[in-house]
Write a structure and sequence with these properties.
Blueprint: E1 9-11, E2 14-16, E3 28-34, H1 44-54, E4 56-64, E5 67-70, E6 73-75, E7 87-91, E8 99-103, E9 109-111, E10 116-119, E11 122-125, E12 136-138, E13 146-148, E14 151-153, E15 168-170, E16 182-184, E17 187-189, E18 193-198, E19 208-211, E20 214-216, E21 221-226, E22 230-234, E23 237-239, E24 250-255, E25 259-263, E26 266-278, E27 288-291, E28 294-308, E29 311-316, E30 319-322, E31 330-334, E32 339-344, E33 347-350, E34 356-360, E35 367-371, E36 374-377, E37 382-385
Parallel strand pairs: 3-4, 4-7, 5-8, 6-9, 7-10, 8-11, 9-12, 10-13, 11-14, 12-15, 13-16, 14-17, 15-18, 16-19, 17-20, 18-21, 19-22, 20-23, 21-24, 22-25, 23-26, 24-26, 25-27, 26-28, 27-29, 28-30, 28-31, 29-32, 30-33, 31-34, 32-35, 33-36, 34-37
Antiparallel strand pairs: 1-2
């Protein structure tokens, strides 16, 4: 049963605001429309309030009519959601520019539940100069969610705190990390970090996938996966052309993870690191894999492809090109304290007049195979440095 909207009444110190109370005093099931004309809900907050209060009794689809909507939407641990009884929030037209959800505070939308899909929407952070200005948070024990074919627009305000202006940010609690979420087919603009999944030494995330997204003009990190037992980053187009600024940027950073797959990404950044895999320890028999990536650092490269303190990892069929005006930098580097590293069938090119195409810093016994690679070093640079 649907109740009527309450009018605004001011008197005796009581203010009743139209449309903030529950509209469906029972679990939701089926399709509901959000919008101004003939819709069940006029705001996203109304629909979220009913989901949070009453849960679901079946699959729920929230179809949003074209228009602009206020953000600041919180979706909690919605009762009875499952792979079958899921919640989908989407544009009625299937065009992600037709529905714009914006907010001048952080975040535009927060998901703290499971089996929720956001599809074909624009989420836009309009704050500038605030300490926190994220677009989407997938937080706490938020599992099995899907973020599909959206535009997510972050702030252009610079910050030295990496996560505070992230476009998509998944943070841990003392008990849980978010698992088995899918970020696919989206376009992300601006922000300090494009996509950031953060676990912890006590609570590693696992099964999170970042696939086939376009990530543009981030300040510090394009994709950052931190403390993930397993993670897949594949098919993304990661690009930033911002001038040197606050913190050295990484196109993709995999940090303190287990078994990772980083494949078929195109990364182009003006300086520092295109792809870095740091302190990732895969078990024997289930190696990490870094393959078929195209990595470019246009101006001042530190390392195009960096492998550091990793165990059991395959590096194959990657193409890396760097230019630098600084001495000692590399197209690819296998750093200290690595074991079980295989490097084969890659193209590593350093177009600067210094540095090297491939640097081997780790002991020779750590390299399982280094073969069938094509190394190019401009005049004055080394094709390979170190021994193996």
């Amino acid at each position: 049963m649907t109740t009527q909207h309450l009018p605004k009444v001011i008197g005796f110190g009581v203010v009743l605001l139209a449309g903030i109370g529950p509209l469906q005093a029972q679990p939701l099931s089926g399709t509901y429309t959000i919008g101004e004309s003939g819709a069940v809900y006029t705001t996203l907050q109304q629909a979220a309030a009913d989901l949070n209060s009453f849960g679901v009794a079946g699959a729920v689809v929230l179809n949003i009519l074209p228009g602009s909507y206020e953000g600041g939407v919180f979706l909690g641990d919605i009762a009875n959601t499952s792979a079958i009884n899921n919640v989908t929030i989407q544009s009625t037209t299937g065009i992600n520019t037709d529905v714009i959800i914006s907010n001048d505070n952080s975040p535009v939308m927060q998901i703290n539940g499971n089996f929720i899909t956001l599809k074909n929407l624009t989420l836009q952070q309009t704050a500038y100069g605030q300490e926190y200005a994220r677009v989407l948070e997938v937080s706490g024990d938020a599992d099995q969610n899907q973020i599909l074919n959206n535009r997510l627009i972050g702030t252009t305000y610079p910050t030295t705190i990496l996560d505070r202006n992230a476009v998509i940010f998944s943070w841990k609690t003392s008990t849980y990390a978010s698992d088995d979420n899918l970020i696919q087919g989206n376009t992300l603009f601006n922000g300090s970090v494009g996509v950031y999944f953060s676990g912890s030494t006590l609570n590693f995330g696992h099964g999170n996938r970042v696939l086939n997204n376009r990530i543009e003009n981030f300040a510090m990190r394009g994709i950052w996966m931190d403390h993930e037992l397993s993670a897949v980053v594949s098919g993304n187009d990661v690009y930033s052309n911002l001038p040197p600024g606050l913190v050295a940027p990484y196109g993709i950073l995999m940090q303190e993870c287990g078994t990772v797959e980083v494949s078929y990404n195109k990364v182009r950044v003006p300086y520092n690191y295109a792809l870095s895999v740091n302190d990732c320890h895969a078990p024997i028999g289930s190696p990490g894999q870094v393959y078929n990536n195209m990595l470019i650092v246009d101006q001042d490269a530190i390392v195009g492809l960096n492998i550091y303190e990793c165990d059991n990892i395959l590096v194959a069929y990657n193409s890396v090109r760097v230019s630098t005006s600084m001495p000692g930098y590399k197209a690819a580097s296998v750093g200290a304290f690595c074991t079980g590293v295989t490097i084969q069938n890659n193209v590593f090119a350093n177009f600067a007049a210094m540095g090297s195409a491939l640097a081997i810093v780790t002991p020779a016994s750590s390299i399982v195979t280094c073969d069938y690679n094509t190394l190019y070093a401009f005049s004055g640079a080394e094709a390979i440095s170190g021994t193996f």
